[in-house]
Q: What sequence folds into this?
């Protein structure tokens, strides 16, 4: 296999396989330097997840990412079976009343999915639908007990 740069892209070319067939070439575009710097300099705010057993886990959450992404980045047990596509309720979170009141309106689809959630409350939302904002600094969200 040969690896060579060409106009800021990496190309992999595979040698012929023993039976004479060639493998498909692979092409990938690396992260641009400015994007990598933005990722490293991303503005964050502290957010605390409270697991079903009451353990508090404070993380630095990048502004603009959703709470499901933040949980996964920090190895917090929040399933998100549909990958954040608003097709399940496994990223269900429970918010404090004042935080809940400051969140954007729910879509009808989110409300439909929440009907399937365990421990549904008046302040329940799906983590995949809540993007971190600067005013979320210090926010606490509870992960309900879904039997884990």
A:
């Amino acid at each position: 296999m040969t690896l060579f740069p060409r106009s800021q892209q990496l190309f992999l070319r595979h040698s012929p396989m023993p039976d004479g067939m060639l493998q498909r070439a692979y092409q990938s575009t690396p992260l641009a330097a400015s994007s990598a710097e933005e990722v490293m300099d991303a503005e964050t705010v502290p957010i605390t997840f409270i697991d079903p057993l009451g353990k508090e886990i404070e993380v630095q959450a990048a502004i603009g990412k959703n709470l499901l992404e933040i949980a996964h980045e920090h190895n917090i047990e929040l399933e998100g079976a549909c990958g954040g596509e608003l097709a399940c309720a496994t990223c269900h979170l429970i918010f404090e009343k004042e935080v809940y009141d400051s969140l954007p309106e729910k879509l009808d689809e989110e409300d439909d999915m929440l009907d399937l959630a365990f421990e549904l409350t008046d302040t329940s939302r799906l983590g995949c639908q809540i993007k971190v904002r600067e005013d979320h600094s210090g926010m606490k969200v509870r992960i309900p007990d879904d039997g884990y």
User: Anything to note?
Assistant: Confidence is low (pLDDT under 50) at residues 1-15, 21-40.
